[in-house]
Specification:
By secondary structure, the chain is of the alpha/beta class. Helices cover 30% and strands 25% of the residues. It has helices spanning 5-9, 12-30, 33-44, 49-70, 89-94, 127-143, 192-202, 211-223, 244-254, 400-414; strands at 108-112, 122-126, 152-155, 171-174, 179-182, 206-209, 234-238, 257-263, 270-273, 279-281, 286-295, 301-309, 320-328, 342-346, 354-355, 361-362, 375-384, 387-394, 419-424, 439-441. The structure holds zinc ion. The site of zinc ion has 7 residues, from loops.
């Protein structure tokens, strides 16, 4: 809707009405009694390992049985998960129709992964799946202390403000959701104070944002030695990877806890951080296997997330290799009391990397900008071997000296012979979904 001519040509007041009406319709479809009931069921079992275990086993069995009975790709397998093959995006893309269930579906909604490599994967799901997903989102919001009616801010990938618009307001209001929606596409340094003001004036209590968008605001506050001027209960992030450093930065500058959510459109795993900052594998959302994948830089064990989705019987994926990694934790349980297993952290999507001087892929780049003043954001672009362009948003403190420091840091991580250039830009590159990659490698 947001890219339609009618929306783009309407005055802001009409855009607010169009957007609010759309939100109301979506809310009515998703957040019905069934959703509410399911949310309560999910909340009820998270502190009881016996009930949760039974729920997980029952759902896994049902998933496998249904897949075997109604899905061509799985019809020859036993009811034992271990006999199923590992699959991945390429395998699913090459056998698209064979994963479709023959069961009656009603309304089918299609969505695509925004994957960084290869063709996007189109995944159909039925209304039940959409409602179940909503119940998990609602439980996530409950973890973050959100109560119905709280004032929210939303800074994600919706193109609610046409790209051509160069003047504030870069936000719209969704009346029935009591929510201010701010554009991720207009976050150039000169506009950032107006974003902060708009949220504070609205009296936002909970923020739902892409990590890159809220980090942009937190960095802005940091370089100006300021803190968010309002009182916020929590910030909920998802859809991009969030480093520990950035999480800490957001929590410091907004004076609240960040609840981060890892999920993917394939719906084969969900991992959520709680009020104690631990990442919990949600074993009622999917069955997750962790395949050993070597060691992290600090010597701890790394594992690949392989998941079986509980919540899309219309397009079941079993033992799906995500290509995403976690670092294992040695903590057996969390002070929050929830019984879901814990992982230490989720490593950046494996798509985000650069090729270093020695030909190795380097995934973790977040240490590079450390200690460089005046930096609001940085993004690494590599189009040729041995050449890296660092796109930078900054303020006046980003002097020549700081620039040289950033070049040195980059070389230190990727190789001394690397040709590193810095380009100051108004806005870093976002995908059409509004996501921002730390590294763009076209090799
Ligand atoms: Zn916890």
């Amino acid at each position: 809707m947001f890219t339609s001519k009618i929306y783009k040509k309407s005055p802001v007041s009409i855009q607010n009405i169009l957007l609010s009406t759309r939100a109301l319709v979506r809310k009515k479809l998703r957040e019905n009694n069934k959703c509410e009931q399911y949310t309560q069921e999910l909340i009820a079992h998270e502190y009881d390992s016996e009930i949760l275990g039974k729920y997980h086993d029952k759902t896994l069995h049902k998933t496998i049985k249904q897949a075997r009975n109604t899905v061509e790709y799985y019809k020859s397998y036993d009811l034992n998960l271990k006999t199923f093959p590992f699959i991945d995006k390429l395998e699913v893309n090459s056998n698209k129709d064979k994963f479709l269930s023959s069961k009656k579906s009603g309304t089918v909604i299609k969505g695509a992964t925004s994957g960084t490599t290869g063709a996007p994967l189109v995944i159909p799901q039925d209304m039940e799946s959409v409602i179940t997903e909503q119940a998990f989102i609602n439980r996530g919001l409950a973890w973050a202390g959100f109560k119905e009616g709280d004032k929210r801010a939303w800074i994600r990938g919706d193109m609610i403000v046409p790209l051509e618009q160069k003047k504030a307001p870069f936000w719209r209001y969704s009346y029935f959701e009591n929510m201010i929606m701010l554009s991720s596409f207009h976050m150039v340094p000169n506009n950032l104070q107006s974003y902060i003001n708009a949220m504070a004036e609205f009296g936002v209590q909970v923020i739902q944002a892409y990590p890159s968008s809220i980090v942009t605001l937190a960095k802005y506050l940091e370089v100006n030695n300021e803190y968010y001027p309002g009182e916020i209960k929590s910030i909920v992030t998802s859809s991009e990877s969030l480093t520990k450093e950035d999480k800490h930065l957001i929590e410091t500058r907004f004076k609240c806890t960040v609840f981060d959510w890892y999920g993917l459109f394939e719906r084969v795993a969900a991992i959520a951080s709680c009020e104690h900052g631990r990442y919990h594998i949600l074993t009622d959302y999917a069955h997750v296997e962790l395949l050993p994948a070597g060691k992290a830089e600090d010597g701890r064990d790394r594992a690949e997330i392989v998941g079986t989705n509980f919540n899309n019987s219309f397009y079941p994926l079993i033992r799906y290799k995500t290509g995403d990694h976690v670092i294992l934790s040695d903590e057996p349980n969390c002070p929050c009391g929830r019984v879901f297993p814990i992982v230490d952290s989720i490593e950046g999507r494996t798509g985000d990397y650069l090729i270093a001087e020695d030909g190795q892929k380097v995934h973790i780049l977040n240490h590079i900008p450390k200690g460089v003043s005046g930096l609001l954001g940085a993004q690494f672009v590599q189009k040729e071997h041995m050449k890296i362009e660092v796109l930078v948003t900054c303020n006046n403190d980003f002097t020549t000296e700081q620039k040289l420091k950033l070049i040195d840091n980059t070389k230190e991580r990727l190789g001394n012979k690397m040709d590193v250039t810095i380009t100051i830009v108004d806005n870093l590159i976002r995908t059409k979904n509004g996501k921002m990659k730390q590294a763009i490698c076209d090799l």
